[in-house]
Write the structure tokens for this entry.
Amino acid sequence: MSAIEELRRTIARLRGPGGCPWDQEQTHQSLARCLIDECAELLDTIDRMDLPHMREELGDVLIQVIFHAQLAEEAGRFDLEDVAREVNEKLVRRHPHVFGTGKLETSEQVLRQWEQIKAVEKKAKGASAPTLFKDLPPRLPSTMYAESVWKQIAKKGLVAESGVDAERVGRIASGLDDAALGRMLFEIVAAAQSRDMDPEGALRRHADGLMRHVEGRIQGTAATA
């Protein structure tokens, strides 16, 4: 028996008759916070490059994956094999330069092809028409959310439409290093706390507003063209 299968059976036993009351009570919703906590602990070991503890925390994240698959299997929806099969097929499908024909030379080319294949797949599934900005996970931390929004704006050449002062951004960036960035962000958070403000929410709302602003500008331009 593989270690993965042994772990799957352990979780099934915990959920089954005579198992653990806590495990038996869990749902996809109740486990959501556990997944966030375990991912945060894993990220901490990655930041510190603490490989022995990284192995442990990867195991804790793996428990969450198998637990959710077990819940779905009990409900007759899918099982761990289905999860692994689907993601493996997706990896092969989105890397034709490795598993098929053609060759890509740079990471940028790979990412561009990945998004193109992803768009075709969504269209084939009958997804709604693509928007200017790709969907982002709503639980994504606001700094990562804002970073992704800005990347899309810059990548699509929409800086002018965004209203962001590119020259000011450039001046800030010119004197920035990791320590200065950390200090600047911390001071902003401290200032927000002193005013009883929510920096996480404020940044997310601004990024959302920026996307709507750019989309409005683009749609307005198209309507008058």
Summary: The CA atoms of residues 151 and 157 lie 10 Å apart. The chain has twelve helices and no strands.
